[in-house]
Design brief:
By secondary structure, the protein is of the alpha/beta class. Helix 1 links the parallel strand 1 and strand 2.
Length: about 200
């Protein structure tokens, strides 16, 4: 099990709005660069499989780095992540040491309450694997239940995109719910520092 499963969104817009969203590029590529450097193989999956849209804001130079671009411009990422991601229903979670939920506003629509994401996460967690998320990707874990039917993140220390950051981003009335609020409702110990700064728990 020297593989990690990276979960991506298929959602390209804010609900019924025409405004574009999708995967936040660096929240996939930064992680992939680190785990590949550590010797792990990476597979990419999404709810439906196939194409993964990119949030156009995440392509701005301010959010890019040489490390981001090296992964983004690679044939492997372009093909296996952005064009033909695996449908999660066809993934065997027993093959993976960890599962990682990427961010971007698109995930707010297709990560929560997905039985296939939940089954994969539960299997990886129960076999001693790592369950990880970044930013809005936390919503992939918020509504999940453990083997006893309790919220998976209840009582656990987590972080993610905050309500303050949602307001400052101007997306308060465009998202279906607030990530931080939902995490706290699920019983998680949610923490964060200054808005839009690096913070890991």
């Amino acid at each position: 099990m020297n593989k990690v499963l990276v979960i991506l969104t298929n959602v390209a817009q804010y609900g019924t709005s025409a405004e574009q969203t999708g995967l936040w590029l660096a929240e996939a590529t930064d992680f992939v660069a680190k785990v590949q450097a550590a010797g792990f193989q990476v597979d990419y999956a999404s709810a439906k499989g196939g194409a993964v849209p990119l949030d156009p804001r995440s392509l701005k130079k301010i959010y890019r780095s040489q490390e981001v671009d090296a992964i983004y411009q690679s044939n492997d990422f372009q093909m296996r992540a952005l064009r033909v991601s695996l449908p999660i229903a066809k993934v065997n979670p027993k093959d993976y040491r960890g599962i990682y939920f990427t961010g971007g506003n698109g995930v707010l629509w297709d990560f929560p309450n997905n039985a296939d994401f939940e089954a994969a996460t539960r299997q990886i967690y129960q076999q001693g694997g790592y369950v990880m998320s970044v930013c809005h990707g936390l919503v992939g874990l918020i509504f999940q239940r453990d083997a006893k039917g309790q919220p998976l993140i209840a009582g656990k220390k987590v972080t993610g995109f905050t309500s303050t950051e949602e307001v400052l981003s101007g997306k308060l009335f465009k998202v279906p719910f607030m990530t931080e609020r939902a995490a706290k409702k699920a019983g998680a110990h949610f923490s964060q520092r200054l808005p839009f700064t690096s913070y890991v728990v």
